[in-house]
């Protein structure tokens, strides 16, 4: 005795007898015995991926059924696949992927790439994968793609398994990551500024200074720079530190304050010598700040104040000496000339009378002059 089993147009069914696979049931009416342990499992072909515990069994034991009902994919250890649904990219498939997809309403197509030697992705495909979606649909499996966007005026350094593989021009670059450790570093080719800040350094006379230095540099040969140093900027920073310590540590505080440009000169000579042949060029070096400890600031302020007071005293003594010398010259003139002495006496008398409110004169002006001022002939 048979029963009818209906499969819709957008469905497929697997018929089992006592747990063993019998056949695939296509759309339509199927006669299935009531007895004998028959059962069926339905699948919607709108979702084409076939995931079942018997997938590998079907591949090996039922190749004709697989050929008729499924689109099969099997990738090698150095192959990457792209799956398209109805002509639209849907998924990136990793090496050694094995899949079965129902044939039916969704057109499934695959594209494979051998990544044994060439693991770069074509620019057009790279743009699709970097965007992560095509026509509004998300592309699955993009975690297997390594993409780097190199800005204008930059160069990208691509590392493969820790070694420099190639230099990347400005633009988008993408690679398959499988079986490789990929990373990239961006290098700005323009003139850049590197600050060495907060350097605590002892001068030759044991004064602690905090110095901030700024250097302008550019990378002239990226391949040489990254071939000789894993991190060229770290190397440049350390050499600036060494040059700064050499400039400050071998001079006293007074020498540094008297000639502030000596630090720039010493550090610039040091750094240019150290980066020669390393693909780097130092354009300029300059000290931004020299910061003294709080107690040293007070001491220097007192020293400056004392120097200014001493300078003022010297000026005042010079003026007093000049005034005394002028008086001496005047006295010598009056000693040799009674008339000059008389004029000086009259000038003095005039100044005295200016400060007197009322003067009484007896005996006339001649008497006043004779009684108050006597001239020895």
Automatic annotation (TrEMBL):
Topology term for the membrane: Single-pass membrane protein
Gene Ontology CC entries for this record: plasma membrane
Highest taxon in the source lineage: Bacteria
Location of the Band domain: 145-304
Locations listed in the record: Membrane
Chief location bin: membrane
Family, as annotated: Belongs to the band 7/mec-2 family.
PANTHER family referenced in this protein's UniProt entry, alphabetically: BAND 7 PROTEIN-RELATED, BLL5629 PROTEIN
Protein name: Band 7 domain-containing protein
Organism: Usitatibacter rugosus
